[in-house]
Design a protein that fits this description.
The protein is mainly α. It has one domain: Arp2/3 complex 21 kDa subunit ARPC3 (Orthogonal Bundle). The protein is 76% helix and 0% strand. It is built from six helices and no strands. The protein is globular and about 55 Å long. The mean pLDDT is 90.
Length: 165
């Protein structure tokens, strides 16, 4: 394995560990949130950073691994919710991150909204009712705020040497 491949593997391994730790921190902080089930989405900053630094392939793998971790540690329903929300956010981020006219904050806000929509869709299937969609009245505005916050964190990170290739 050459030096670049070794550095990439190390960076992705550390990123996965950070992603898992931030996901765990998010779950701890969720009890302090004003809306049940609301999370900051801190792990999404790592996945978006991977998309910006490497490619869709690495970002997709990171998103799947994080959802797998959630499923293993918090149960199947949480894993499904994480997977559906994560994949929706991933698709939006992957499609929009390279657009020069969109800021990182804008992409993050749109990804947070997509994450919420993906989780609401999963909840409809799991619970067998569309009444769950009413919860979107509370979750979507919150997603705009959390998406802006995670976008701000990511914007600050892009100004560091982390993104030097």
């Amino acid at each position: 394995m050459n030096r670049e491949a070794s550095q990439k593997a190390a960076f992705l391994g550390i990123s996965l560990a950070l992603c898992i730790a931030l996901s765990w921190l998010d779950s701890l902080l969720s009890s302090a949130m004003p809306i049940p089930g609301l999370r900051l989405g801190l792990a999404n900053t790592v996945i978006c950073a991977i998309l910006m630094k490497y490619s869709v392939k690495e970002g997709f793998a990171m998103s799947l691994l994080r959802s797998g971790f959630v499923g293993l540690t918090r149960g199947a329903v949480s894993g499904i919710m994480s997977l559906c929300g994560g994949m929706a956010a991933f698709v939006v981020t992957a499609l929009l991150i390279s657009r020069k006219r969109l800021t990182v904050r804008t992409v993050s806000v749109l990804a947070a909204a997509a994450h919420t929509v993906g989780q609401l869709a999963a909840a409809c299937v799991i619970m067998g009712t569309v009444r769950v969609l009413y919860y979107g009245i509370f979750l979507l505005p919150a997603a705009l705020v959390t998406g802006f916050c995670t976008g701000t964190i990511l914007d600050r990170l892009t100004k560091t040497n982390l993104f030097d290739k």
